[in-house]
Amino acid sequence: MPNDHLTTAPPGDADGLTGRIASGPDALLRAEVLEPQLRFETDALLPWYVQVEKVLLLEYRRLGLLDGAQVGAIADILDRVTPAAVAEEAAESMSDIAFTLERHVARRLDAVPPAWHVDRSRNDLQATAQSMQGRARLLECADALLVFGRTAHRLAGRGAGLVMPGYTHMQPAQVISPGFYFAALADQVLHTLERLESVYRTADASPLGAGAMAGQELDWDRDRMAALLGFAEVRTHALRAVAQRDWALEACAEFSLLGVALSRFVTDLMTWGGAGYGFIDLPDQWSGISSAMPQKKNFPVLERIRARTAHLGAAYAAVSAGQRSTPYSNSVEVSKEAGAGVPGAFDTLGSVLRLFGAVLENLRFREDRMREACESEYLGGFTLANLLTLRAGVPWRTAQVAAGRYIVRAVARGLPPAEPDGALLDAVLAAEGYAADDAAGLLAEAMSVPGGLRAKRSDGSASPDSVRALLAGQDVAFGALEERWRRRRTAVEAAAAEVDRLLAGPEGRREW
């Protein structure tokens, strides 16, 4: 819960934390910087700081620096830590979460073990807690993407056998289906989920044991600590471990890329729902009205979604600009200020996926309008050129010219695509020195709207069979990704359970 009860304290004695300066932070510095940071960290990062402290206890025990009773006493206090309890110590701990947590525990011990927190730095502690938080948010993000992707996949299945115009350069181009179109959206989500696996691997490397920047002086078992925190590996180089926040950069980069793609899909829906198209509709509860024009039914939710995708690009710009031109070492600029917008990026993506997913769930295709739009356009021009080459032996480029000339003349005569004029095509071909045995039959086949889908035979095409094959493959891919992301979550949860087991068992000797 938010820590609104944090109070601003006047500059005070800092001797309990350091001998280097004698005064605590100025009240303005606390109010503008330190206390907002502490509120965020206690709300978002405290569980991960506590988990790191527990693993450190086990490591101090392994090193022989703390005994079982000391480990048990500290672990018991850590188990009862809450944001509100930590906030009580904040004013006297320079509003720093590491100092505050340390003081909170120390004040509740009968005696503070001399070796507790020996050879420790806030730098790798902070980097580790942030990586654990990033890892958790990436797991949430993957879950949201899987739900959204499955929604797009179901919608594609509903529309695989329908027809609609496909557009290039904003002009009607070829017959496609809504199923074909929304299978592309599902494929885009699969692509992002696969790329996020690389981001997760970045976040899944433990900085703990890197110290301030140059490593630590005790023989810490970094592999063991990483495993107990659920990390897959150790971020080996000590300087790199504390200097970078690559997971934040990479996550926001992927969100920005996905936002670009999603905005394009939403733009199409905005177009298809507008006047002159009317291909889709949404129920009233997902629609808006005009205050002045009672005839209008608007879809402002689509505008909201598209606008929010812009925030994803802005978040990446902010985190990258905040890190560039900084020294390659630990710094507040990189570890805190540059990443200030990262939690918001995760929140924004979640909102976009929930809203867009709800739109897809409620979307209704206006099949008659889509079919009429296909029937009113000469969408079979490409097919006609192919047939002239394959059936009448007309060279391909000449066939393109002949098909184009036929369409121009048919339109000038007011002929719809469904009324082929074989004699007109014969005349066009004769002018080029060619002839077709059944010009009217070729035209009827080429301009058939259902035939426009069936004519496509290559893998990944708009034909109903191809779309269904695409969807079947996507279903398998979603299942595999769901399982991989489930295993990652299970590994993190199992590590946390193992830490608690060790603290409660013979190694921790929590029997004081």
What does the model show?
By secondary structure, the chain is mainly alpha-helical. It has helices at 27-44, 46-62, 68-79, 83-90, 97-106, 122-158, 178-203, 222-228, 238-243, 246-272, 300-323, 332-337, 342-362, 367-375, 381-392, 396-412, 422-431, 439-447, 449-454, 464-504; strands at residues 164-168, 171-176, 205-206, 233-234, 280-281, 364-365. A two-stranded antiparallel sheet has the order 1-2. A two-stranded parallel ribbon has the order 3-4. Helix 6 packs antiparallel against helix 7 and helix 10 (246-272) packs parallel to helix 13 (342-362). The two termini are 32 Å apart.
Write down the Rg: 32 Å
Number of strands: 6
Which residue ranges are poorly predicted, with pLDDT under 50 across at least 5 consecutive positions? Answer: 1-13
Instruction: Report the sheet-strand fraction.
Output: under 5%
Distance between the termini: 32 Å
The run of helices and strands is HHHHHHEEHEHEHHEHHHEHHHHHHH
The percentage helix is 55-70%
**Main beta sheet, described?**
2 strands, antiparallel
Number of helices: 20
Look at the structure and give the mean pLDDT.
Answer: 92
Structural class, by secondary structure, is mainly alpha
Q: Strands of the biggest beta sheet: in what spatial order?
A: 1-2
Q: What is the 3D shape? A: elongated
